[in-house]
Design brief:
This protein is α+β, with helices and mostly antiparallel strands. It is built from 3 helices and 8 strands; from the N terminus they run H-H-E-E-E-H-E-E-E-E-E. The strands form 2 sheets. Strands 4-1-7-8 form a 4-stranded mixed sheet. A 4-stranded antiparallel sheet has the order 3-2-5-6, covered by helices on one side. Strand 2 and strand 3 form a beta hairpin. The relative contact order is 0.14. The N terminus is likely disordered.
């Protein structure tokens, strides 16, 4: 019900924004060349309308954020939520190209990283790979990572772990880091 109210408010705000824009266009572009006094009044009104448009835009963005949060809460209730994050050791020569997840033998997520995503991970960023529902109990998680390490050498890591989901949200972090004197980087699965 809250979602419908927010959606109605969003479309009403969008309609007001459209009406204000059409009014601004009419005030600035319609009719013959105005007199100096009329031009001054029109300019002041245009500035006022521009300020109102900016306020409406900010309001629409705020409503959109609220709708997205409500949608996430409805789709993935906090008590049944599984969140899988990906991180890489800072300034590491290890970079993931592709990560896929399977839970209990079924594909959950697959993501191919772009150059900008890889750069963000290298600078300490964290990528949300998956958010979804998960019932309480034990589950088998399979993680497969392909990527590059120092010198452009390609690596492939695969890990299978059993996770136990208790009431409440479950957070997992897939962390990649190089290992000294090892041809393969370490893939650590951390539970929060």
């Amino acid at each position: 019900m809250m979602y419908l109210a927010c959606t109605k408010h969003f479309w009403r705000s969008l309609g007001i924004l459209f009406a204000v824009c059409v009014s601004c266009e009419f005030l600035t572009g319609a009719g013959a060349a105005p007199q100096t006094d009329v031009r001054s009044d029109t300019h002041e009104r245009f500035i006022e309308l521009d300020g109102e448009i900016q306020e409406i835009k900010e309001e629409i963005l705020g409503i959109n954020r609220e709708i997205l949060q409500l949608e996430e809460q409805l789709l993935y209730p906090h008590g049944q939520q599984l969140v899988v994050l990906v991180s890489v050791a800072n300034n590491s020569p290890v970079s993931p190209d592709n990560i896929s997840l399977q839970l209990n033998g079924q594909a959950l997520s697959q993501h191919t990283y772009t150059g900008s995503e890889d750069a963000a991970l290298q600078e300490g960023g964290v990528h949300r790979l998956y958010t979804g529902r998960l019932s309480d109990g034990e589950h088998r998680l399979e993680v497969s990572v392909t990527g590059k390490q120092a010198g452009g050498k390609v690596f492939h890591q695969q890990r299978n772990v059993t996770i136990t989901k208790l009431p409440g949200a479950k957070y997992l972090e897939l962390h990649l880091e190089p290992v000294e004197n090892s041809p393969e980087p370490a893939l650590t699965i951390r539970e929060w």
